[in-house]
Input
Amino acid sequence: MPQSRTPTLLFTGLLAIILGIWSGNSFVYRLDLNRVPDRTYFVTSLKALVTPDSRESLALQNAIYQSRVEALERQRSDALARLNSVNDYLAPLEADVRTYRSLHQERVRMTQEEQTQLYIDLVSRYRDYQRAMSETESFVPLEDGDSLMALPSVYRDLIVREGGEVARAHNRFIKEPRDVSFAARYEGPLRRFLSEYDLNRVIIECRQSLCELHLSGEWEDPYYQAYEAIYHDLERTDWYDLTRLAGAHQYRGEGVQIQVWILGAGS
Output
């Protein structure tokens, strides 16, 4: 009996081998590998799976490793770019925070008058910035000339800050020649009139048709409108027949108020 089974087992094994080969060929045919451009790579990959220690399998593993390394490097580069972008955004904010903390520490040591002046300066600068952004045409460079009014001073700074009509009127004044008769007609009366008021400094200069006045006084209230009251008194005099073409006022702190008037003949 054992001898009679041997041919049967051999036949069964041979049949299984034939069926396996036929099944494998059918599977390859269904995959249509002959029409796949990367057939060699696919076959190599299959061999690498069967024989992991082969040269092809090592090359495939190295390629997969390199591909993963490149992907991770791209992710790292993208993350670093995002981090740099965030740092660029935070840098000016951190600088503002440091500035604010420094100002806050200084403000604690300030008197009430100094705190008021700091607030006024900040508001003034913000106003100037907004005006410059929305009305660039209103800021006019000041002309230099042979005049007391062309000298650098707090008044010149005030004219620059006001811009617009004040700067244009000031430039017209600087460019005018000096008319002795016109100057004599108004400079003396203006000085005598203003000497009746409690002012710290008075600068008056007249040209051909324009007069410019720089005034300084001290009052406790930073919003005191004493200059307007003075000008109303000036308009009520018998000899005054000029027109205020432009004017500017600013509080300088510690009670100091400065004023610029540009007066002209006619309208």
About this structure: Helices lie at 2-31, 39-50, 55-108, 112-134, 154-162, 164-175, 180-194, 226-235.
